[in-house]
Prior knowledge:
This protein has 131 residues and is an all-beta fold. The chain has no helices and eight strands. It has one domain. The radius of gyration is 15 Å and the shape is globular.
Amino acid sequence: MAEEIGKFSLEHVSTTYTEDEDGNISIHTNWCGKAEGYGVVYDTTIFGPTALMELNDDLEGGPIKRIGQGFLEDGTTVAGSGSGQWSKKPGEHIWKTDCVLQISDGTKIRSVGEVHLDTLTFSGTNYSVDE
């Protein structure tokens, strides 16, 4: 893995479910917290889309999209968006996430984390992306 940029720790704000014209469900989770190097951050992580009949205990993972904004300590701001995958940690209410985000300052980061559904927290580590 590339160089560690810093840790992030977010708390759940809200969740919204949407359904597309084919009946697939997307779960939009909103988070707020802090990320080293990015200050206060707001994040929307979208799980899916997934067919309704697959949203059960057999679902092991799937696609994610992340969109967010950071408010740096120096008064500037950056936004980012990207995609990746999530996977369920067996026997626990934890979803592991791994995605690459394009940042509005021109950099890319890899963000690896865990959503703890029992405590409504999302934390992990951001890494530089070598291209």
